[in-house]
Amino acid sequence: MMELQKLTIGKAINLGLRRAMEEDPKVLIMGEDVGKLGGVFRITDGLQKDFGEQRVLDTPLAESGIIGTAVGLAVRGFRPVCEIQFEGFIFPGFDQISSQLAKLHYRTQGKVKMPVVIRVPFGGGIGAVEHHSESPESLFAHIAGLKVMAISNAADAYWGIQEAIRSDDPVLFFEPKKLYHSGALKMEIDTGATPSRVASSQLVREGTTATVVAYGPSVKVALDAAAAAEEEGKSLEVIDLRTLSPLDLGPVFESVRKTGRLIAVSEAPSESSLTSEIAARVQQECFYSLESPVLRVTGFDTPYPPAKLEEHYLPDLDRVLHAVDRSLSW
């Protein structure tokens, strides 16, 4: 039965978690302040009240403990969903993620599954202090054994979190925190529909002049740039990666073969990043179709700056349009 609801990204994740918990009693939520408070961004609001303290657990301030406990729970057949309060807090748990979570399925020749989801609010734009606005997704995409997702809209948030929870392998689920409660990004979602997959890249705007590929919070920037470019007679095709590991670059290759140009956009620093990988793969697969070098619009290769400077650090509409002009000048 159709159940249409107009949702923000934050509310969509909340309802996606709720549906997963209703369908499977083995789904648990754990993290700092996720219970009574509902998380600092209120994404888990109301879940402890409805499902109890045995399934929505407030943990100590210890990311290594949260993830280590989740590994043990997964071995016992549970499906833990861990919240990392801010992306910059994830590094105390990096050893558990890279050495245990990512390896156990392989190490045991498939006998032990690791159905663990780690929710990671990421990216800048909220005027926060140090360690609260980073983009570490490339680090995890590099680790074999992990699936990495980065959503940009409410529909993908709702279906994607459920897809991640159903996975028998570990998933890092990156959420654009500055877009959580944006009313302008509300989407009408049929929450009663059959689940749709978010594992592949998605064409979100058709165009012919150049291709712009992005993920997470940068998708909105790319779409805003495409709307502005249209006023100048330029037609930008925009692709949302959605899943960062494994990368689904087939739609990107197809688009570049049509437009001949590619601009990759991300808030993360450019060196040794996902945009680096995209540029290398497109050059390898679409060399004879390219009319100009692949260009990248990213954060800078510095630590994330103080809040008063972040508007100069983050990729914006003007930087994307400048890259388009540079590409067209070749």
From TrEMBL:
Keywords: Oxidoreductase, Thiamine pyrophosphate. Coiled coil: none annotated. Its cofactor is thiamine diphosphate. PANTHER family: PYRUVATE DEHYDROGENASE E1 COMPONENT BETA SUBUNIT, PYRUVATE DEHYDROGENASE E1 COMPONENT SUBUNIT BETA. This is Alpha-ketoacid dehydrogenase subunit beta. It comes from Amycolatopsis panacis. InterPro entries: THDP-binding, Transketo_C/PFOR_II, Transketolase-like_Pyr-bd, Transketolase_C. Gene3D superfamilies: 3.40.50.920, 3.40.50.970.
